[in-house]
Amino acid sequence: MTATDACRSLATGAPSGSLQRPAELFRPVDVSGLVDAEGGYVDRAIFTDGTLYQQELRRLFAPSWLFLAHADQFHKPGDFFTTYMGEDPVIVTMNKKREIKAFLNNCRHRGARVCRADFGQTRNFTCTYHGWSYDLDGQLVSAPNQAAYPESFSMADWGLVEVPHIATYQGLIFGTWNPEPVPLVEALGDMAWYMDAMLDHDEEGTEVIGGVHKWVLEGNWKLSAEQFATDWYHVNMSHASALMVMSPTGKGPKDEIVHRSGRQFANELGHGAGFPVHPKNRFDARTVHQHVDYAALRERLGEARVEGPLTNGHATVFPNFSYLPVNGSIRIWHPKGPDKMEVWAWTIVDKSWPDEVKEAQRLYNLRTFGPSGIFEQDDGENWSEVQAISHGFITNGVPLNYQMGLGSEEHDGTYPGKTSELYSDAAGRAFYARWRELMNTPAWHEENSK
């Protein structure tokens, strides 16, 4: 069964047998008045309203390219990793042809997951409820007591729902339910140039070390995704104690570090990245810094990337994939309702690095942005604090200010796309403008139902 068929039958009211869902279940809300990206205002209802959240799942997550896994997690047929696309559980696996496939982790019989492990190696995915079993291509290969079904029952009709499009960029695997998406590279646009500063250091590419760390936070997924796209502004206040601990003197960083200058990339597709710009930008982990050949990186990537987005910085690929180059952190913000998110984080390193350099980066990432990292704890507290009071009637009606750097976006001649100053809300405004656009645009499953 294709994703298009599934969405036609379940999301649009088109018949499946004699089933037909009423259109009222999917009546869209016009969000034009909730985001004023041009003026720099955001209505807090976008973080709390359950109806808007359901519309996000239909119109934002379902059509978008979403990060699934790193290619290094799959080495031989049967390797699998279970994750989510929005709130839809999916299995990502390598089939016998060594192709990466992804399927809805949902038995076609009674709807339980057919794989309950986080990752592993298998020949088939078998539902523990009634024993329906599927192969690595998603085909139903065993249904106990099959003789009891009517003659019209065909195993070929009841395979797993397949994610129709999978694409890889620099080792990062993305998928989309959209049956006719724009190519992934086109969807990334200028963002790919900034991503390459982290992912394209040499021909060997990157690999994952240390597994996947997962934790739950009280807060809307957009709070974290937006911060990683746009917010260097919070660093000196929110992370003051962490910066003191990490400074050589224990008194905090020097003034010229605190008041760094830099650029912020703000993209009409919702992507964003911010980074200080300095000829002596470096990796924070000493072992990593001492190993890295900055001259070779300048030759491969150019001065602009090495002095900018190569190391210190933050970035989000719309809607919910983010990364931090300086410590090799990549993460996904899985939505779990309007008030909760689940964070999944990987550490990636250059394959060509010696083992001791890779280990130094892993430990540095854990200390700073792991589940108990000294920076990560600060961020989680901020997002939870914002969400905790957002349901108040008066509080929820007070607009939020996104006006820093308003009108400063420009083609600066050095970095692709439009950029603003490092301290700016430009990428945040672009993030919510893209959110507004997709929320007001019927997705493919709605168009097909007309």
UniProtKB/TrEMBL annotation:
Task: List keywords of the entry alphabetically.
Answer: 2Fe-2S, Aromatic hydrocarbons catabolism, Dioxygenase, Iron, Iron-sulfur, Metal-binding, NAD, Oxidoreductase
Q: Which residues form the Rieske domain?
A: 65-163
User: Which interval of the chain is the signal sequence?
Assistant: none
Q: Which CDD domains match?
A: RHO_alpha_C_NDO-like
Gene3D superfamilies, per this entry?
Naphthalene 1,2-dioxygenase Alpha Subunit, Chain A, domain 1, Rieske [2Fe-2S] iron-sulphur domain
Question: Per its record, what are the GO molecular function terms?
Answer: dioxygenase activity
Q: What InterPro entries does the record point to? A: ARHD_Rieske_2Fe_2S, RHO_NdoB-like_C, Rieske_2Fe-2S, Rieske_2Fe-2S_sf, Ring_hydroxy_dOase_asu_C_dom, Rng_hydr_dOase-A
Q: Which Pfam families match?
A: Rieske, Ring_hydroxyl_A
Membership in a protein family? Belongs to the bacterial ring-hydroxylating dioxygenase alpha subunit family.
Quote the protein name from its UniProt record: Aromatic ring-hydroxylating dioxygenase subunit alpha
Organism this protein belongs to: Nocardioides eburneus
